[in-house]
Design a protein that fits this description.
alpha/beta; Rossmann fold; seven-stranded mixed β-sheet; 6 helices; 7 strands; 23% strand; globular
Length: 191
Amino acid sequence: MKKRVAILISGGGSNMVSLVDAMQSGKIDAKPVLVLSNNADAGGIAKARDKGVATEVVDHRLYNGDRVAFEIALHNTITKYNPDILCLAGFMRVLTAGFIKKWEGKMLNIHPSLLPKYTGLHTHQRAIDASDSKAGCSVHIVTAKLDDGPLLRQAEVPILTGDTAETLAARVLIEEHKLYPAALEAFVDKY
């Protein structure tokens, strides 16, 4: 039986699209059952609908900073779709240990750095500022510590003379679109 995958986004959803395309083409033996955003204006919601994937929005702003209430609503919405795996694909909310525990070992994330370097935000600028010769992206299993779970796969991108955070981010994103489906495929095969 195909594994059921829910994908959480906050923005344009380009990594979500790469995951959905890989599942719908049969490259990954899994089915995208939900794309959920914490932002009603996320461009990825329309993209998911165009691909025939169910969508939901749980707007964190409606909870006035009450993370527990937000995560209860998030969890309840997700569980209606009975997913086996959650993929965070540009979901720009830090989740609490309580939420993560409910999905322990079943939640993946893509991060735009070569972890363990540069957890959190502004990863491309930080790599450039450190005079690193390479940057990249990582797919890892989500744990309670931010961007720190077991690594599944990484892809490297050289940092070129004259790179800005934006030019580096654009090259890293190309690799993310290949890396995340490959990591999910391997994860599903071992699941």
